[in-house]
Specification:
The protein has helices at 2-18, 31-34, 75-80, 88-97, 107-115, 131-142, 194-197, 220-223, 233-244, 253-268; strands at 52-57, 60-67, 70-74, 103-104, 127-130, 156-160, 166-170, 183-185, 191-192, 225-226. It is of the alpha+beta class. Among the domains are: 51-142, Mlu1-box Binding Protein, DNA-binding Domain; 156-243, SAND domain (Roll), CATH 3.10.390.10. Its main location: nucleus.
Length: 269
């Protein structure tokens, strides 16, 4: 116990040192959730390739397969069961908006999935996504998404590389609608909505010009990234959950705002 406590102390000191220059508080994982942070061990590369497994998603068993050292779920099976009331285009567009990338199966892997009953014999291809990505996708449709618990003065340090690029603070407490001006530019201190911020840039010495995409309301979720290239899993998941808000799911903007308000009030008590 003393060893674990000392290690946690070192981690906390490192986090405090990193954020000492910022007025906004860092995001720390609630102790009660630390025990469940990794459903799969992060070093899962020792799993045998093409191992067939089963993951429970919303009470239903979904076939999984180990690809590149990571357990992935069959997207087609998820679409035909949990999301059977939604069209292919709806699922595809939502997946792209959430930044979820499918890993396509090889012919051998596809045959394994057929034999496991996840795919019909006539299927010619299949995309695979992680369980975390599957949960995010299903939550965006099934209406069980809730914002992460964040302190009022917390902000994500984010950046994008569109045009000359830019960096700013994404403040979840201000993100109460899809067009909320919740990002404060690091360079000019002006506030922007997420979809406007990716078209806002500053030409600094080290900047390189990148041709931006055409204006697309959901494109900010693909371009706006955490400045920390190696964030903790919990921080990365919290960022994913925030991006999933106001993304066309069954939760209305008013309901999302009320839920976020309630969570923030909890931290102020």
């Amino acid at each position: 116990m003393e060893k674990i406590s000392s290690q946690l102390g070192v981690v906390n000191d490192a986090v405090s040192s990193t954020n000492s220059k910022q007025e906004l508080q860092p995001y720390s994982q609630p102790p009660q959730q630390q025990q469940h942070q990794h459903h799969l061990a992060p070093g899962s590369s020792n799993l045998k390739p093409n191992t067939v497994g089963e993951a429970i998603l919303y009470g239903l068993p979904i076939v999984s397969l180990v690809i590149d050292g990571q357990e992935r779920l069959c997207l087609a099976q998820i679409s035909n069961t949990l999301l059977k009331h939604y069209s292919y285009n709806e699922i595809h567009n939502r997946r792209v908006a959430l930044g979820i990338t499918c890993v396509q199966c090889t012919p051998v892997q596809l045959e394994i999935l057929r034999r496991a009953g996840a795919m019909p014999i006539s299927s010619r291809r299949c995309g695979m996504i992680t369980k975390r990505e599957a949960e995010r996708l299903c939550k965006s449709f099934l209406g069980e998404h809730s914002p992460p618990k964040l302190p009022e003065n917390f902000a994500f340090d984010v950046s994008h590389e569109c045009a000359w690029g830019c960096r700013g603070n994404f403040i979840p407490a201000r993100y109460n609608s899809s067009r909320a001006k919740c990002i404060k530019c690091t360079y000019c201190n002006m506030y922007f909505s997420p979809n406007k911020f990716i078209f806002h840039s500053h030409r600094v010495a080290e900047a390189k010009y990148t041709q931006p995409d055409a204006a697309n309301f959901n494109s900010w979720r693909r371009h706006l990234k955490l400045s920390d290239k190696s964030p903790s899993d919990y921080l990365a998941h919290a960022w994913e959950d925030v991006k999933a808000m106001f993304n066309g799911g069954s939760l209305s903007e008013r309901l999302c705002a009320l839920v976020m308000s309630a969570l923030l009030s909890f931290f102020l008590i």
